[in-house]
What we know:
- The chain has helices spanning 2-13, 42-54, 58-84, 168-173, 178-194, 199-203, 207-224, 246-293, 295-311, 330-340, and strands at 85-88, 92-98, 101-106, 109-112, 119-125, 130-134, 146-148, 154-165, 229-240.
- The protein has ten helices and nine strands.
Amino acid sequence: MQDGSKGATLNDSGPWGGSGGTGDGPKKPWRPTPGRPAGPSALDALLRRGRARFGGNGPQNLEVGNLWRWAIIGMILLWVIFTSAHTIGPQQRGVITRLGKYVGTLQPGLGFTFPAPMDLVTKVDVDTIHVIDIDTGSDGASGQNLMLTGDENIINLAYSVRWSIRDPELYLFELQDPDGTIKEVAESAMREAIARVTLNDAIGQGRSQIEARVAQRAQELLDSYRAGVVIQGVAIKQADPPQEVLDAFKEVSAAQQTAQSYLNQARAYATQVTAKAEGEATAFDKVYEQYKLAPDVTRRRMYYETMEKVLAKSDKTIVGPRNVVPYLPAPAAARAQEGGR
């Protein structure tokens, strides 16, 4: 029958064509064809290309791969440890920024954060006293820092400003140039203070008051700017007139000192004379009290005391009328008396 022969043909040839079997069943596509060598499978070809790329045989490649894997894991662990643990010194504070945003401050000791680059820690020294010296003007060419006093005189000032960090986060993020800002604020406060005093006060005894006023004013301005710093003090190192009139000013200052010296001497002499006069007046009051009690006796005593003072300065000897002899000076009479003996 045609159908039977057709079915036999399909069973013999199979859907892949050709008869490679014995008639027992359809030919398996994964079985090699009798008489032809079997080729490598796709998995074998992939493994062969992998061995050719990494070199060596299979077990050696596996060992090298494990070493690389452990090395990468160790590097990751070290990176996490060293970027997550932070040691902050006693004089330091650690400012934490997470993806560029401030999130907190680490106190002295051991602190932990997320690893970098997620968290970054900036250590800030809060105990160090910083010093800014201001000895020249804004131009810096003349070497002078000229200011106008309250009595319209010009003075050349050189001073220094001592400051420290109080709030590390404010110091780092509020001002673009903290050091420059502190210098400008101190100079502004100093000019304001000098404009309220005279030249003599700025050069003489008024320095301490000016320094305290400048420190207070500078602190107020920096607090308004949220600078996060503390002004420890201001010290005036030099206060002189400009160089062009310095010699003339020294002459005037020397003349003033001489005049002041003469005034001091006059005051001392007046004090001495006044004290002597007061002593004599006190002695006279005592004598007058005694005179009122016994006028004759007091009068005679005063006469004798006065004559004693007058005759003590004379070198003549006065002899009574009974034994009249030529007068002799007291030294000659003494020698004659000694010769007679």
